[in-house]
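Supplementary Methods. Inverse-folding protocol.

Structures were first reduced to a discrete structure-token string of length 259. This string, shown here, constituted the complete conditioning input.
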């Protein structure tokens, strides 16, 4: 019998296609993976309230979200790593003066520091989530913020990188970057899970496609980049599978001998 593995899946571009649809072959492959006795988890940059329906559909209760800053194992929170509140307050003031709005993301909801902005609307529209984003410029005060979305052009990114070394700025959209603690990543969050399990490191698996997957794909022994993935993700991964819409998850699991 094949040794037990734990498999972490990114969401956007990995489990879900560009239209944010879950391919039938992917759903069936994950069900078969669990039936074979393997652990299945999610590792995403999304907030937990952005993928509750997906967790329920796939019956997954272990996940790394906010790019590693918030980790849940079998329904229980095991790791929290919020952004430095004083530095985040300074970033919000500076970015607002530069007309770069911010969305603050907490455990249960998120708020924007401006009433309305084209870049925010454009970026969030690509996630295809059904929610009304409210305006609250003080939402970051007195509560843990695990990730923020800074809406700026790529040409403006270096300014923030040089000014705020305690933060990592990871681009996820042409007009926006994720803001996370510099010491945090999906790889760090994954370790919080794997440290609890009696599963050999060589049996750790991760599927991803984007820039926020680089640390995960580099560190995990059996890492797989999607065929539709960013060139740097493919370079970081040990293996490459087909695109998400070309049965990439199923083919990747078969390639590794897990199905």
């Amino acid at each position: 019998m094949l040794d037990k593995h734990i498999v972490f899946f990114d969401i956007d571009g990995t489990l879900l296609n560009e239209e944010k649809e879950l391919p039938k072959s992917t759903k069936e492959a994950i069900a078969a993976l669990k039936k074979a006795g393997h652990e299945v988890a999610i590792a995403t940059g999304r907030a937990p309230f952005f993928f509750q329906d997906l967790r329920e559909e796939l019956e997954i209760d272990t996940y790394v979200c906010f790019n590693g800053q918030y980790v849940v194992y079998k329904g229980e929170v095991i790791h929290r790593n919020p952004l430095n509140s004083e530095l985040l307050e300074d970033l919000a003031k500076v970015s607002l003066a530069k007309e770069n709005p911010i969305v603050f993301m907490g455990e249960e909801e998120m708020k924007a520091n401006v009433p309305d902005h084209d870049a925010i609307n454009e970026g969030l529209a690509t996630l295809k989530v059904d929610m009304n984003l409210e305006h609250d410029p003080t939402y970051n005060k007195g509560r843990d913020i695990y990730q923020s979305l800074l809406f700026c052009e790529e040409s403006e990114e270096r300014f923030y990188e040089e000014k705020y070394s305690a933060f990592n700025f990871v681009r996820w959209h042409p007009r926006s970057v994720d803001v996370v603690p510099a010491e945090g990543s999906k790889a760090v969050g994954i370790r919080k899970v794997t440290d609890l399990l009696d599963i050999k490191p060589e049996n750790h698996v991760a599927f991803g496609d984007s820039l926020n997957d680089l640390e995960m794909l580099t560190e995990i022994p059996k890492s797989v980049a999607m065929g539709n993935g960013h060139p740097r993700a493919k370079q970081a991964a040990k293996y490459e599978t087909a695109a998400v819409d070309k049965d990439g998850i199923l083919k990747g699991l078969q390639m590794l001998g897990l199905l």
